[in-house]
């Protein structure tokens, strides 16, 4: 693996980041733009089930929901993908059929990342061989926090190679990286190692996705694009549960990275509960009243 200078990441002005995020949260959105934004956000969601109690039936139910969020709302998009453990990739692939919804699979000893390199490669290969379109890997945070940046870089690069044609999302688990400077360095490292997306969190550690953290990661993507012309995707995951919050993220996305990133090819939400709130909001816009929450399936 090639050697990289890992000391070029800029330091982060935390006060400046927080002030900029506060401005994003004050934007006013007109009704028609709000509806378009909610539908766009819905199309960017990765519905996810990553529990020890997952079964084939639960995965099949989630795949059905992904295709039938609310049949009585006009022009409602499907979600972007469903995300499952490698052992359920075949089940999800079959259940989704020709819907166009992607199958993503976590890998590399998710969520801890604490395992051997051989097992991590095997984990990835199983998912890809069974038909995963995307792989969400976790970095070795212990190695990163010890300063073993070359180790983390090489591991990401080898998983990227094992992915073949599948796109690789690299999870930083920002809640364990402590500082915005660490998050920026980890973002730069993952991008240089070949990540197709960088992702905030597993959803198992708090805090998960936050707007300041996501902005720092977007800035890393923007700087890389300015230098190389290569686009990298962004996925905030965990803790984004309301339609209002999703729209704030989209405002930040547009003003930081621009219109090229405003599609599910380059931006995702890892937030299954968000889909329910968006459907409720869109139902209200169409009918004038809210659906009962019992109308929406939990899984």
* The CATH fourth-level homologous superfamily: Aldolase class I
Mean of the pLDDT scores?
Answer: 94
Write down the CATH class: Alpha Beta
Q: What separation lies between the terminal Cα atoms?
A: 42 Å
The name CATH uses for the topology is: TIM Barrel
Strand content: 5-15%
* N-to-C series of helices and strands: HHEHEHEHEHHEHEHEHH
Question: Structural class from helices and strands?
Answer: alpha/beta
Give the C-alpha Rg.
19 Å
Roughly how much helix do the residues carry, as a percent range? 40-55%
What is the number of E strands? 7
Strand order of the largest sheet: 1-2-3-4-5-6-7
Low-confidence stretches: none
In the CATH hierarchy, what is the architecture at level 2? Alpha-Beta Barrel
Largest sheet: 7 strands, parallel
Taken from the alpha-carbon principal axes, the silhouette is globular
Summed up, the helix count is 11
> What is the total number of structural domains?
1
Structure description:
The chain is an alpha/beta fold. It has one domain: Aldolase class I (TIM Barrel), CATH 3.20.20.70. Helix content is 47%, strand content 10%. It contains eleven helices and seven strands. It has a seven-stranded parallel sheet. Helix 2 packs across helix 10, helix 5 packs parallel to helix 7 and helix 8 crosses helix 9. The termini are far apart. The mean pLDDT is 94.
């Amino acid at each position: 693996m090639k050697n990289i200078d890992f000391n070029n990441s800029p330091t982060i002005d935390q006060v400046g980041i927080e002030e900029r995020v506060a401005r994003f949260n004050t934007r006013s959105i007109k009704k028609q733009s709000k509806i378009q934004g909610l539908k766009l956000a819905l199309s960017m969601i990765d519905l996810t089930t990553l529990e020890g109690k997952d079964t084939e039936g639960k995965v099949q139910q989630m795949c059905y929901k992904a295709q039938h969020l609310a049949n009585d709302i006009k022009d409602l998009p499907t979600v972007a993908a469903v995300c499952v453990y490698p052992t359920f990739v075949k089940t999800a692939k079959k259940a989704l059929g020709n819907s166009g919804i992607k199958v993503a699979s976590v890998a590399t000893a998710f969520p801890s990342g604490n395992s051997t390199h051989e097992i991590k490669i095997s984990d990835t290969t199983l998912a890809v061989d069974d038909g995963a379109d995307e792989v969400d890997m976790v970095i070795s945070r212990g190695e990163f926090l010890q300063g073993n940046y070359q180790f983390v870089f090489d591991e990401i690069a080898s998983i990227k190679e094992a992915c073949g044609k599948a796109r690789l999302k690299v999870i930083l688990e920002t809640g364990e990286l402590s500082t915005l400077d660490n998050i920026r360095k980890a973002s730069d490292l993952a991008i240089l190692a070949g990540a197709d997306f960088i992702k905030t969190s597993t959803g198992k550690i708090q805090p998960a996705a936050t707007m300041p953290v996501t902005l720092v990661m977007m800035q890393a993507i923007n700087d890389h694009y300015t230098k190389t012309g290569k686009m990298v995707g962004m996925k905030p995951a965990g803790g984004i549960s309301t339609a209002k919050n999703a729209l704030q993220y989209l405002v930040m996305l547009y003003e930081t990275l621009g219109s090229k990133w405003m599609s599910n090819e380059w931006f995702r939400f890892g937030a299954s509960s968000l889909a329910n709130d968006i459907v409720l909001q869109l139902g209200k816009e169409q009918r004038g009243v809210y659906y009962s929450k019992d109308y929406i399936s939990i899984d």
